[in-house]
Amino acid sequence: MSGSKEFPEEQLKEALQQIGLKESRIFDRALLNIAEQELKNQYISRGKYGVKIVTTVTPLERNRVAISFSIFEGKVAKIQRFNFVGNYLFDDNTLKREFALTTPGLMTWYTDSDQYSKPKLEADLEGLRSFYLDRGYIEFSIDSTQVSISPDKENIYITVNMTEGEKYTVRSVIFAGEKIIPEEELMTLNQVEVGAVFSREKLTETTKLISDRLGDEGYAFAAVNAVPELDRENNEVDLTLYIDPGRRVYIRRIIISGNTDTRDEVIRRELRQFESAWYSTKKLNRSRQRIDKLGYFSDVQIDTPTVPGTADQVDVNVKVTERNTGNLTFGIGYSSTESLVLTAGLAQNNILGTGNSLSFQISTGSVNQNYSLSYTNPYYTADGVSRGFDFYRRDLDSTSLDVVPFNTKTLGLGVRFGVPITEFDRINYGFAYEETEIGLFENSPQRYIDFVNEFGDITDAWPITAAWARDKRDSVIYTTAGTLQRLSTEVSVPLGDLTYYRLTYRLQWYYPLSRTFTSLLQTRLGYGDGYDNQDLPFNKNFFAGGVNTVRGYAAASLGPQDTDGNSLGGELQVINNFELLFPFPGLGKDRSIRLATFIDMGMVGDTYEYIAEEMRYSAGFSINWFSLVGPLKLIFAYPINDQPGDETEQFQFTFGSAF
Q1: Dihedral of CA 579/585/588/593: which sign?
Q2: Fewer CB within 10 Å: C terminus or N terminus of the chain?
Q3: 268 vs 294, 316, 321, 508, CA distance in Å?
Q4: What is the pLDDT at residue 336?
């Protein structure tokens, strides 16, 4: 077998063996013809329609033959043109945007979306049908589809013949059948508006919401069927939703498999569906999410087979695929703020299968150096209260930033607890002791010198922390909807030298504008002060500027400055970010890379009047890429109202990886 570049020779031989052509078998000319066609099909599946295969049969001694295949692969056929016939309401370009298949473009070398595939075309045609049905064209139909290829087998032309029909509006929505749920509640689940243009998407969403709601009541096999009645004279449609709840079922047993290291109880305590209880779609979905968030498993699958011989019982099979939870990591990263950052860590997130975690981390950069040892028991009590201990050292050297030069070395020891309030809300609180050594320079401002003269260059503090967090995002990595909120406070009580408090609030709100575009609002508010006749320690000030606050300005460069132009930070912080997130053009549904346009605004200071007057703005776009070698973020920002003395950076980036 010669000339094959698209497939390994072993793969082609395996395909021939599956149809019966292999060594030591009786030679059959008809089977050889089938083998040639099978080889051609392998190449046609890759878009090489011009493939040619020359078969040579050579007689050998002892009544044997040798068969050789010479393969001339040819070029991959590309889609050159789409033709739409019968479309009067929408132009060709609008309809082509609904197709995953495309003509050759800038990124099609990577996506192969310009190569014809029958399954992909069928999916695109269904998407085209949905496009019309979601806009009220109930009688839309695809009459025929022709796929033609050029004589040289390198160009493909696709023609779609259609009938668009008339646009219909919804005249009425009626619920029929067995109404287990009150009709008033059914109306709240209805997404189809009377008087609005008919939309199959909203109708499908309505039937799903009703089915899920019935599933929460134990009707695992409920069916909701929509029957339209068309008034073609007035272009109106009456919708009747027939509800068949079926039998109410309950859970007989919950069976867990695949957990060779993790104890059953670690998984069972995350379940929200219980044995001998009524079946609940919501509780099963939430159970899967909670098990997945443990981070111990690469895959979590839940299915509910019917118990043989019964009509009202199901079992819940929870199948997990364990992943390594013990990690020895070394990392390297680079950012425009910290330059080279080295990290190392030793962690076991599931000690002896108990779900407890122990970790040691080191992170060294030109600005921050952190060393920490942590232990956490996520179920210190049976109802999910967690307890953890931390021992840490945090060194800060600000000399490479555009702030007043100083450095600190902080040693700390603390204990923390987490209390679940709801499925999405959690309260965290803790108590710690910190000792901080402060280093100043000749050009340090007088207020810093006065602080050291009053409290000494070594201070201690007893901070108490408390925080409330609510996480309702649909995904942690590729978020398209939901919110993340965190309200936290840190108060240093009068057991040590320093008495101060800090309050921070952070909000991330993702709102889907369409299937591809998502808006993101981020807000960060901070306030700090001292009490008991003390000011807020200068090393506890808030700062602004950089990739995580106001892009386009150097890290920690905004806010009040000393006479040398170095930033002092402030007791108040206001940061707002507005972003429009969307996929990289040409990459389809690839979630490893995402683009964003943004507008940032923010400032720090000691009064709200100062912040309002000195607010800085920037705009630009960013590229977020989860590459094979680590996360990469590229930022191109334009400072809108920078003032003399501001440090601006129109290009910023961060990059990090563990290996």
Answers
A1: negative
A2: C
A3: 12, 12, 15, 31
A4: 46
**pLDDT single digits (tens) 276-317:** 999 999 999 889 888 887 878 878 899 999 999 998 999 999
Which tokens in the block code for residue 217?
A: 């009541």
CA distance 295 to 359: 15
Residue 659 binned pLDDT confidence (cut-offs 50, 70, 90):
very low
| Residues sharing a CB contact under 8 Å with residue 157, sequence separation 6 or more, in sequence order | 79, 80, 81, 83, 147, 148, 149, 150
CA distances from 388 to 198, 375, 385, 413, 457 (A): 54, 5, 10, 11, 30
Q: Which tokens belong to 354?
A: 């108990």
Q: Which amino acid makes up residue 12?
A: L
Contact 333, 341 (CB under 8 A): yes
pLDDT in tens, 609-639: 999 999 999 999 999 876 655 567 888 999 9
Q: What is the pTM of this model?
A: 0.64
CA distances (Å), origin 348, targets 296, 345, 476: 10, 10, 22
Q: What pLDDT score does 365 carry?
A: 60
Query: Sign of torsion, CA 42 48 49 53?
Result: negative
All structural domains of the chain: 9-72 (3.10.20.310), 78-163 (3.10.20.310), 169-244 (3.10.20.310), 250-322 (3.10.20.310), 365-658 (2.40.160.50)
Residues comprising the chain, all counted: 659
Query: What band does 658 get if pLDDT is binned at 50, 70 and 90?
Result: very low
Q: Distances in Å between the alpha carbon of 615 and those of 401, 471, 554, 579, 639?
A: 20, 29, 15, 18, 12
The C-alpha atoms of residue 207 and residue 191 are separated, in whole angstroms, by 9
AA identity, residue 433? Y
User: Tens of pLDDT along 150-173?
Assistant: 888 889 999 999 999 999 999 999
Residue 454 CA: distances (Å) to CA of 409, 447, 459, 597: 18, 11, 10, 48
Residue 285 main-chain phi, psi, to 5 deg: -65, -40
Q: What sign does the dihedral 276-281-282-287 (CA atoms) show?
A: positive
Residues 432, 465: contact at Cβ < 8 Å? yes
Most confident of 397-406, 472-481, 553-562: 553-562
Residue 133 has pLDDT above 60, yes or no: yes
* pLDDT (tens digit per residue) in 545-585: 888 899 988 878 899 887 767 778 899 999 999 999 988 87
- With tokens 């698209």, the residue in question is 6
- Bigger pLDDT: 585 vs 380: 380
Quick one: which of 163, 80, 96 has its CA closest to 128?
96
